[in-house]
Amino acid sequence: MSDITKPTIFVTRRWPADAEAALSKYFTPTFNSEDVPLTTQQIADGFASHDALAPTVSDTITAEIIEAGAAGKGKFVANYGVGVNHIDIEACKAASIPVSNTPGVLTDATADITMTLMLMLARRAGEGERELRGGNWAGWRPTHLMGRQLSGKTLGIIGMGRIGKAVARRCALGFGMKVVFYNRSKVDDCADINAVQMASVVDVCAAADIVSLHCAASPDTFEIMNAAAFDAMPSDAVIINTARGDVIDESALVKALNAGSIGGAGLDVFQGEPNINPDILTAPHTVLLPHLGSATLETRTAMGLKVVDNLRAFFASEPLVDPVC
Ligand code: DGY
Q1: In the predicted model, is pLDDT for residue 92 greater than 90?
Q2: What distance in Å separates the CA atoms of residue 120 and residue 136, rounded to the nearest whole number?
Q3: What is the pLDDT of residues 153-180, one digit of tens each?
Q4: Is 142 in the same domain as 44?
Q5: pLDDT tens digit string along 118-132?
Q6: Is the domain of 30 the same as that of 152?
Q7: Cis geometry, peptide bond prior to residue 274 (ω within 30 degrees of 0)
Q8: Are 36 and 61 spatial neighbours (Cβ–Cβ below 8 Å)?
Q9: Does the active-site annotation cover 130?
Q10: Is residue 324 part of a domain?
Q11: Do 140 and 86 fall into the same domain?
């Protein structure tokens, strides 16, 4: 295809080099060369003047953007990422704009960052690093910064999809942990790790030493970790969130941390990112990361290649590889 006939793609951020090269092979992309957040108006103008839009989790794709795109050249939204809670899917359906995402390729990276948070919390690694860098390490002593072991503990998963299962397998097979979980529908392919499905989020919270959130953000899961769920957790149990900020009631979390009614929190995602509730920054026993779940070169490249696969399918009038709507 000559450049003149290649469909044009408006890409809201920069991608890893190999993914940008693959996109440029088949399409004429416009990348956001500054790699800074774009305004709603800039994205709307970009979509309206290109055949497709490739946004990320850091963009809010409003009905206004979708309508502007549909009124112009825009025909398709190929999301760079698996979660699509930042896209007004109803507006896409209303404008007959299909949407794709990138499931599967970020499972391992996200499961690994979950383990990172879990181990950092359990072994007090952040506290130790801050102490050492601050010049405050007084040397080895038997009671210094004692953490807890993962082996023998119970992991509670909320949302037993691909990532939940990958975390469960790491914990059961790699760390000798027991696994309980809550999932809206019945899950029956975890028998090899003896994972036990429970009836409610509160049941999981009451049974687990570590609760890890892996459900998609939706109206059904909005603040699914609420005051009742935190109240059910034992006082030394910790919560890990690598899903989306909106699945936790952050005020309830801050209250539980400050009161010592839970043992800690490891968070990679936040409500209203990148603006973090200041009370979370000052709450005790937290490990906080800037949404690094999928941030490996391998995964971020694979996510871009998936976007390319979906764009190619769309413009060849073939079924989407990863249809959302
Ligand atoms: C996703 O793909 O939804 C991730 O949160 C981005 O890392």
Answers
A1: yes
A2: 19
A3: 999 999 999 999 999 999 999 999 999 9
A4: no
A5: 999 999 999 999 999
A6: no
A7: yes
A8: no
A9: no
A10: no
A11: no
Same domain for 119 and 100: no
* Mean pLDDT value across residues 212-235: 97
Same domain, 170 and 199: yes
ipTM rounded to 2 decimals: 0.94
- 186 and 304 part of one domain: no
Q: Which of 13, 291, 300, 312 is catalytic?
A: 291
Residue 297 CB contacts under 8 Å (≥ 6 apart), including other chains: 16
312 has catalytic annotation: no
Q: pLDDT tens digits for 3-32?
A: 678 999 999 999 999 999 999 999 999 999
Question: Which H or E run contains 239?
Answer: strand 238-241
CATH number at residue 237: 3.40.50.720
Whole-prediction pTM value?
0.96
> What average pLDDT score do residues 81-106 get?
98
Domain enclosing residue 13, as ranges? 8-104+297-315
Annotated catalytic, 90? no
Instruction: Quote the number of domains for the chain.
Output: 2
Which residue from 219, 213, 208, 203 is spatially nearest to 253, judged by alpha carbons?
A: 213
Of the candidates 236, 167, 155, the one whose C-alpha atom is nearest the C-alpha of residue 196 is 155
The answer to the question of residue 321 being in a domain is: no
Which of 278, 275, 283 lies closest to 253 in space, CA to CA? Answer: 283
Q: Are residue 187 and residue 278 in the same domain, yes or no?
A: yes
Q: Are residues 170 and 268 in the same domain?
A: yes
Extract the tokens encoding 279.
């009370």
**Which residue in 20, 127, 223, 273 is the catalytic one?**
273
Distance 166 CA to ligand 1 centre (A): 16
Name which residue sits closest to atom 3 of ligand 1, judged by CA: 83
Residue 215 has pLDDT above 70, yes or no: yes
